[in-house]
Amino acid sequence: MKSLRIKPRMTSTTVCLFLSCIALANAQDGLKELKVGIITSKTGTLAFPGAEGERGIRFAGEEINGKGGVGGFKVVFATQDDEGTPEGARRGGEKLTLDGYKILAGPVTSSNTIVLSTQLERWGAMLIGTLGQSDKLIGDSCTRRMFHTTNTDSINMSSMTPWLQGRSEAEIAFVGLDYAWGHDVGLALEKTAARLGKKVVSSEFPPLGTKDFAPYIQKLQASPAKLVVTALLSQEMINFIQQANSFGLAKDKTITGIAMLQKQYIDATGTMMTGLSGDIDYSPLIETKENKKFVSAWTTKYNQLPSRNEAEGYIMMQALFAAVGKTKSSDPVEISKALEGEEIPTIIGTFKMRAADHQLLRAKWFGTIGVKDGVLQPIPTQDFAPAAVEVQVSPDCRMVRW
Amino acid sequence: MATVLNGLVYGCLLVILSSGLVLIFGLRQVINFAHGSFYAIGAYVGFTVAPYVGFWLAMVTATGVLAIIGWALDRWCFRPLQDRPPLTPLIITFGLYLMIEDIIGIIWGRDTYSLATPAMADFSVWIFGERFPFYRLIIISVGLVTAAGVQAWLRLSRIGLYARAASTNRLATGMQGVNTDFVSGLVVALGCGLAGMAGVIAAPMLSLSPTMGSIVVTDCFVVLVIGGLGSFGGAFVAALALGMIQSFGATYVPQIASLIPYLLMAGVLIWRPTGFAGSRIH
């Protein structure tokens, strides 16, 4: 039988031609790749904020690529699902860094961000935390390869302090999710309340994934506190708002919360949240030229206003672009060094990345949910300059320097 | 008293949902991993049609749509696979669960929604000095009526008799002239219809998201293991017990509340692996 023989010379010519084509294609592009690995929750109860954060990150990447890239690089992304668990985050980080994505971004929870931070040296990678808010991220978990562009719990609580001070209620009840962030907020609230001569008389910590909040709501109703502070997230927040509404909790108590005034919750609960007050990290109503441009571009693409998580993803990328533009490098170490102490221009202002703990010191707002421009949304009523809400560097942050 | 009522609310929701799982397992010997997805589809169908036809008709519509899906599932999935090893349909239903979750995301998006409480039930009543949402009392009533209805159907109707017979010995029942495929199709349709109904009933209380099914179905599997695979009565008792455990746990021992159901399940698996009521439909 006659067999098909491939001549070695012909094979090598074909391979050479193929490789030349690839090289030519890259040369035409003229840009090297800045590989950004997104670790986010795509499944589980945190899938929604995970998707929002990723959308903001990718939007920033597409936008900068459309302008010819940054520092001689075009941004490319790969995403791994952390399944909402620290183990999933570690697995995702391992996969991404092995694939060459050494600049990591995006975990939703602080727990997942912390797990990643412990592996960065081993992976030769860096991480910019996008949505996690625990104080631990800039406290005992701080590392030289991790940066944080979102406000932390203590910063958020600082913005609530003037409002709390003006309230007549001396007793406060707290309900927060039973993980690092919820406990962090609870602790920050206790300290703030004590400073203001108030007292947290009851604290409830429903586990992540809680569906029925009725037992917790009834405990809040039974509490002597007339003010309820929440630290809930995603579906848990929506379930809580719906169920608190059906129990008439807001008739007896004033409800406020950290990270509560968000578009996704308002969209899901209709008018139930009208009049509620809380801290605001981002609002499409913030009056800066850059924000107006961002809102316009976002609305053109998605036909809706950007949410807080989407804006956080975008701001995080702005920090990365600032460092890459400065160093003209995609090396995580070079980028990390450049970020320390850097002034970062963002859509909500230009802010300093504090070198001591890698926290972006940014402005903060407090506000109420109401109708503006025909849309029910968080309306900022009070703004705080970075210095007004800045918290001191934690003595627990003992960063090994470069 | 409020703690008992809260336990009953979640328990009754689990009764409606796990009834379907029990019926399907009893007849087809399939642990339907996609059951939570059917619950989610029910909620989304209800959410979509409720603005046009009202809440109660939306519930009927979702039940009907899911019953049709259930019938199709039995006809083109469970029936062809009935002679395969039990792992095959198990893996297929798991695959279905993953697919349906994505399909829901494609059709309705990944945003989280909520369905408004029907206006006639959107108020609170005072029970033993505590405010309690009337809609939650409706959930309890629907759960209890559904359980009684399914039990009566199984006990008093001819089809129910065939269903019980087929769950005991499919071959012998077929030899007596009973069309067991038809009975199975009907039971799977009923089971999936109940999942759809549970989805709509839960929607005003719990938020709608593509992953909503996977969250609740875990509790249903706990119910199945504790009550006994295929035992309707066992599932009823186990669902109510689980609701109570969660409610009392959250009130009195919140630190370990989420662990208790799984500890109980582990205990049952060790000391009584068939569950409290065995594995046959009764």
Can you describe what's shown?
The complex is a heterodimer of chains A (402) and B (282). The mean pLDDT of chain A is 89. In chain A, helix 9 packs across helix 11 and helix 13 crosses helix 14. Chain A has 402 residues and is of the alpha/beta class. In chain A, a hairpin with a 6-residue loop joins strand 12 and strand 13. Chain B is mostly helical and 282 residues long. In chain B, strands 1-2 form a two-stranded antiparallel sheet. In chain B, strand 1 and strand 2 form a beta hairpin. Chain B starts with a helix and ends in an 11-residue tail after the last helix. The model of chain B has no long low-confidence stretch (mean pLDDT 88). The interface between A and B is large, with 34 and 39 residues.
Mean pLDDT of chain B: 88
How many β-strands of chain A, per DSSP? 15
pLDDT averaged residue by residue of chain A = 89
Compute the CA-based radius of gyration of chain B.
18 Å
Structural class designation of chain A: alpha/beta
Strand count, sense and barrel status of the largest sheet of chain B are:
2 strands, antiparallel
> How much strand content do the residues of chain B show?
under 5%
Shape of chain B: globular
- Count the strands of chain B? 2
Secondary-structure-based class of chain B equals mainly alpha
Count of runs of 4 or more consecutive helical residues of chain A:
15
Q: Which regions of chain A contain 5 or more consecutive residues with pLDDT less than 50?
A: none
Keywords for this entry:
heterodimer; A: 402 residues; alpha/beta; seven-stranded mixed β-sheet; five-stranded parallel β-sheet; 15 helices; 15 strands; 44% helix; B: 282 residues; mainly alpha; two-stranded antiparallel sheet; 11 helices; 2 strands; globular
